[in-house]
Protein 1
Amino acid sequence: MTAVLVTGGSGFLGSSVVRGLAASGHTVTSADLRLPTTPVDGVGHVFMDVTDAAAVDAGIAAAAPEVVVHLASIVTPGKGSSRALEHAVDVDGSRHVLDACLAHGVRRIVVSSSGAAYGYHPDNGAAHGGWLTEDDPVRGNEEFAYSHHKRLVEELLATARAEHPELEQVVLRIGTILGESVDNQITALFQRPRLLKIRGADSPFVFIWDTDVVAVIERAVTGAATGIFNVAGDGALTVDDIAGLLGKPTLVLPERVLRAALAVGSRLGLTPYGPEQTRFLQYRPVLDNTRLKDEFGYRPTRTSRQAFDEWRMRRGS
């Protein structure tokens, strides 16, 4: 069995990963700023602020893990958040965890990245019919904090792979997560009376069920495969597909009209989204999962369509 430390262990994914690893007999330490809502018998807990390099170093030194699962990040900023805080958690925090792993002889680090690291660009996946593979560059847009920060973290990891090959890496570029209790910026789009669509853009989504993500992370801890893997179900759904499944109409707008409306709305404080949001809707990263299945050895239990259908049915939509 393996000694594992999980950053963000009290979070949505982290708590499930901690439970799963403990149930499999691993020695697990959960590291987070807050105690878990439901503690797991036999699991240790260390209070860790990833923005504090000394605290991260001390926590990893004390736990002496063979593997670190790094999940701590800000996915959906709360009120009062700032770009500086998000950078401190996402990027500086990842650097501190990586440095501590190297300093204390950790054998492997498993990192939850995101499909957002590829960025939102009109030529995404041009070489593979619109599908992005792990060999495509990460070009996370600076105007989107989460996307940009995931890109910066992946650049840190790439440097570490070149300079410190003794530290194994499993980097998971995760698609849009759905699950029974998932609420995020994406699911909020689907709960509106009409789904917004930019004229001329299919805006396909790839989905992955939350238990599949947890299973992939658990396998990444002890499996033989290392490297970078897209984590998504088979297939994709366009905005029109999603609207049809929900029985909702679409509101189709030219990009320039929506951009102008968002510019005015954000200036007046009527919306948290700026005009750059049109890129998010137009050029979504569509993840090819071939390497996940063939090299990593995991086949998601649900396709993108099946994951969406289950989310919809559980919500009564």
Protein 2
Amino acid sequence: MTKGFDRRQTVVARPRRIGAFVLAAAVCLGPLVVLAQTQIYDSKTHKWVDFDKKKARQYYARNKQPPEAFRRQLVTFRTAEEPGTIIIDGNQHFLYLVQPGGQAIRYGIGVGREGFGWAGMVRVGRKAENPTWTPPPEMVARDPNAAKWAAGMPGGRPDNPLGPRAMYLYEGDSDTIYRIHGTVEPWTIGLDVSSGCIRLNNDDVVDLYSRVSVGAKVIVLMQGAALYKGI
């Protein structure tokens, strides 16, 4: 990894490391395990500290950007997957876009909160600029704020949860309802916060969108997550 890597996960069980990538997938054979607590390194105290929602928001308010590890950067990355493949390490809150020459562009992400994590192999089925946000029926049923947009929130609004770009994840020809998209809550990058979608800050999702083709393979890894499809 590059210099400036300043975060870690306190994991339930140590994942198996393959090269520069932590393979954190696990088939769920029973109740979901508790997701790991995100931590970041405090350079002033030289200690690892929990990075929860409150601290994340305070950090963003002070710095107007996420911690250094979650900022877009080119890293060494060994994989057999072809360039253009997206590999998501949900435990570490990183999305890797595989590049030629043993490298990848790494983006910080927010992932599914407890009970909404998932793992699997899907593909980018379509892409949209300024996408319309239509909450799924399950979200409409549990979230009054989502219910008023059951028919869809137009794209381009500053409060649109999908942000300026969205990549829709398909299994075969079927929409999984999961997306890679922007966010109106940039301080949540690095946290388990979503309903299963993968969120990036808006500058990063615009950059990723410009580099990714429809049909690109997407591999989602998350320890203890429900298995959407076999990997």
Protein 3
Amino acid sequence: MRYQISGKQIDIGEALQTHVKTELTDIVSKYAGRPTEAMVTFSKSGHEFVCETVVHLSTGLNASATGKAHEIYAAFDSSSEKMDKQLRRYKRRLKDHHRERSQPVELSDAGSYILESRDESEDSEQDASNPMIVAEMEAKIPSLSVGEAVMQMELSSAPVLVFRNEKHSGINVVYRRDDGNIGWIDPRTNGSA
């Protein structure tokens, strides 16, 4: 597994990096046999240390957790406990869905844009159908089954996930509805699934 351990305006020593690698390897190996990458970022927020951990699995799932504490090691331990809980909760579902997957999930490149928001009362010279692009980034679209996409969305606590459906290679969307259920948009079908 590749590790990217960094600090935002704080120095992290070799001892902390070794601790992070050892603990994350133990946690991830218990629940998911094929991790590919782990990104751990330490920062300071007021008087607390913040540790953000994201683990990418070869199954296409991304698990993320954040921990806060007055000490940097305690912040990581808090984050790793949350990661452990997430992976433990999804272990059975991960095993069932990914037992047959022999290759890592295929990722497609896509553009991701942030558009300027406007107040309706604003008088703007620019046409509302042509909003201004504020930022442009690269995004990765995973090729997943619908069940895997739902798990990915829940693991990352995201409100929506765009993915390429493995059945027909079409772009699909899963999202969390206001009523708590999961919605699935598949433009290829005409309402009959």
